[in-house]
Amino acid sequence: MNMTLGKLGIDLLSPDFIANPYPYYDILRESSPILYDADWKLWFVSTYEDINTLLRDRRLGRDMEGAPKPDPQTPFGKLHHNSLMEKEPPDHTRLRGLVNKAFTPPRVEALRQRVTEIAHRLLDAVQPRGEMDLLADFAEPLPVMVIAELLGVPEDGRAFLRPWSHAIVAMYELSPTPEDEQKANQAVIEFSTYLQGLIDKRKFTPREDLISALVEVEEAGDRLSEAELIATCILMLNAGHEATVNAIANGMLAFFRHPEQFELLKRSPDLLKTAVEEILRYDTPLQLFRRWVREEMEYKGFRFETGLQLALLYAAGNRDPARFFDPHRFDITRQDNPHLGFGAGIHYCVGAPLARLEMQVAFQVLIERLPNLRLACETVEYRPNFVIRGLKALPVIC
Length: 398
Ligand code: HEM
Hints:
Blueprint: H1 15-19, H2 22-31, E1 34-37, E2 42-45, H3 48-54, E3 60-61, H4 75-82, H5 91-100, H6 105-109, H7 112-126, E4 131-133, H8 134-139, H9 141-151, H10 161-169, H11 178-204, H12 210-220, H13 226-239, H14 242-257, H15 259-267, H16 272-282, E5 289-293, E6 297-299, E7 302-304, E8 309-312, H17 314-317, H18 352-369, E9 374-375, E10 395-397
Parallel strand pairs: 2-8
Antiparallel strand pairs: 1-2, 3-5, 4-10, 5-8, 6-7, 9-10
Helix pairs in contact: 4-11, 4-13, 7-9, 7-18, 10-11, 11-12, 11-13, 14-15, 14-16, 14-18, 16-18
Bound molecules: protoporphyrin IX containing FE.
């Protein structure tokens, strides 16, 4: 119990850890499944059962009174303050209810045709070259285009979404630097100004998009403030693609490393649904999320003091042998797979039905169009981020 992550020899920010955190999670889970690290000032939790239980415990939350937060006078601080993801009920319930309507399974299913068209269009552009960076040419633009269309961001504004989003989500890593903060503030200013222009246009000429729908709610009364409207649009645009990009690229890498599973999927495309769930379990795109201790509590003999944070390692829970049979095996036929890739409890991913659809379409179109796809390099490199973990590039031969 005195052991720290340091004493376990685990450096969460080292390239070696980020490239393959899974053996380290095994050590952590087996030796200290609930571990306080004084340097990080975090309780690390690594078993499936504990993460799944704690995510549903209302004494913990994404917000709490008196939590040290980014200065609300700064652009990033203001965004953070108005983001539904950083709220707890009743504000969380009110804001989440508004966006939830856009992501019901039937509404999302209606997008399948359009997502398929976008996927084909992207491959039309690169297939003749016989090679591509699957990340930059396919996994990135697909979810960006889908979420931009859904919200109603016109084509000429889309090139900025990715850099703005990258700068903002860097603040959710474990130890953002002052330079990260400065970049995030600048990105929030530019992103908000851009969205404000779009919102003003939609007020006069509404369209069939999510921005118009949210503008209508804002104008109807006090259920959505203008700052919340902008924060919600930014959250949807960022959360709506960051993880999906990595999920598609991680999934393809898993197939390259397990060619028999790729062959199986090509022979049996009806396995697409279970394959997508397995990708989210096996190489979880969002490795951890934090929760504040809002009320002092005892859990399995540990005392969580108010004001501290828990780091729930979803990706470690997803490889827990106590919950998943043969957890390090990539098995696209896996049936019993209630993974934590989308979290659990009240902050469970609101975009999960869309993310699933995008991934199913992405792999379906890839196996149909490029059945001989193979990796064009010996090793792959990861970006130096742990929370939103993903590849720098995925060069392939088509
Ligand atoms: C494979 C892709 C995706 C993964 C792995 C993923 C994962 C997650 C996870 C783990 C959470 C919970 C965070 C927590 O526990 O604190 C979350 C929340 C959220 N996700 Fe996703 N997500 C994905 C795609 C999407 C998409 C496509 C959208 C939007 C269209 C979206 C919107 C959101 C929002 C708004 C929240 C906050 C919900 C709340 O706080 O109530 N996500 N996501």
